[in-house]
UniProtKB/TrEMBL annotation:
Gene Ontology terms, MF aspect: adenyl-nucleotide exchange factor activity
Protein name: Fes1-domain-containing protein
Coiled coil: none
Keywords: Repeat
Residues covered by the Nucleotide exchange factor Fes1 domain: 1-75
Region described as Disordered: 1-26, 205-271
Length: 375
């Protein structure tokens, strides 16, 4: 502040003298530190400093976690604002992906630091196909999936954040979904095991296959980027509704900007994950696990002390089954159909009727009818 005051005095004219009364002063450029004080450091510089602090083992754990927490704010992208922005924070251009990813396997990083790193990565991947594409090149799936097995090195928070990160990586990302079946990855089996996690919160957050709607199973429209484009200023003849804007409906002359959604615009087929997921649900017996978790829920809690069903979890399972059978025209075997039908009858009775059942599980009457028609 003292330097700033001195510079200001040197470059200002005395109030009692005219400009012509004194010789022109030699211009002295401001020190960059003073400019940073006035305008603040560029976001890119702050992000680099955060990562440098996060990987610096000489700093305290609290300092490293605080740096990652600060970094997470910069990597968040609003999907409706960045599709045509070319100057958004880019971890790849700043060469920050590798040091952040290294924290997940570093012996010098505590589980708390790893959880914070997972949070940063997961946030950076949300609604950002270009980030998905770059991050996948670091072969992250084995590391991310390793967090899903309960252990002293994988706390409830770590498993939840790993699912959050997997959700961001797998959503509308066919190349990543395909890698779940690669030898040595065993991704589908580990996701299946997450359905039986002792913590009910982790079960609810098994987002790669349970989501509203299931994010890997819901079919994307042909040529769709999977990202809605909001009509901010509809014309008098257009309703104020959300409009889906896909590469097929864009003008042929529209350029593909180097932004967060360039990967989808260059190759719309990468958003098609439905068929891959449907095949995996059947091939790896995940459907059996899903149905079993609905009709015969496993106890949950540290000692398995909670034996009652979890409403939130059951609602997600019903939504998954609806998407699989109705939206994707998947087939259930006779045993699965009988189990679900028996469960629905019992639930209808316990809730007091069909209307109450539909309200409890957030189903419309049409959805309920369509689902039961598949049983």
């Amino acid at each position: 502040m003292e330097s700033l005051l001195r510079w200001s005095l040197q470059h200002s004219a005395p109030q009692d003298s005219a400009a012509s009364d004194r010789a022109p002063a030699t211009r002295q450029d401001l020190n960059p530190e003073i400019i940073d004080m006035l305008l603040g450091k560029p976001d890119a510089e702050l992000m680099k400093e955060d990562v440098a602090a996060a990987v610096d083992t000489s700093k305290s754990e609290d300092e490293r976690i605080a740096a990652l927490d600060h970094l997470e704010m910069y990597v968040f992208l609003d999907p409706f604002l960045v599709q045509r922005i070319t100057d958004y924070p880019d971890l790849e251009k700043l060469k920050l992906w590798e040091p952040i990813q290294s924290l997940l396997t570093s012996k010098d990083a505590s589980i708390e630091i790893r959880v914070q790193a997972l949070w940063v990565i997961g946030t950076a991947l949300q609604n950002n196909p270009s980030a998905q594409e770059v991050y996948l090149s670091y072969n992250p799936l084995p590391t991310l999936l390793s967090f899903l097995t309960p252990s002293s090195e994988s706390t409830v928070s770590a498993r939840s954040k790993a699912l959050y990160t997997l959700s961001g990586l797998l959503k509308h990302n066919a190349p990543a979904v395909k890698q779940l079946s690669d030898p040595g990855v065993s991704g589908w089996q580990k996701i299946q095991n997450a359905l039986h996690d002792p913590n009910i919160g982790v079960r609810r957050k098994s987002q790669p296959i349970q989501h509203q709607p299931p994010l890997m199973l819901a079919p994307a429209p042909p040529g769709s980027t999977g990202t809605p484009n909001i009509a901010l200023h509809p014309t008098a003849n257009e309703p104020e509704t959300q409009q889906i804007h896909t590469p097929d409906t864009q003008a042929a002359s529209d350029p593909v900007h180097d932004n967060s959604h360039a990967a989808h615009l260059r190759d719309a087929s990468r958003a098609q994950t439905s068929a891959i997921t449907q095949d995996a649900l059947e091939k790896y017996g995940i459907l059996d696990s899903v149905v079993s978790s609905l009709v015969s829920p496993l106890p949950h809690g540290v000692d398995g002390e909670n034996t009652e069903a979890d409403h939130d979890y059951d609602e997600k399972v019903l939504r998954l089954l609806y998407t699989y059978t109705v939206s994707c025209h998947g087939n259930l075997n006779d045993s699965q159909k009988a189990s679900i039908k028996k469960w629905l009858i019992a639930e209808t009775s316990s809730t007091g009727g069909v209307t109450q059942l539909e309200e409890k599980y957030n189903l419309t009457s049409v959805e309920h009818a369509d689902l039961t028609s598949k049983l």
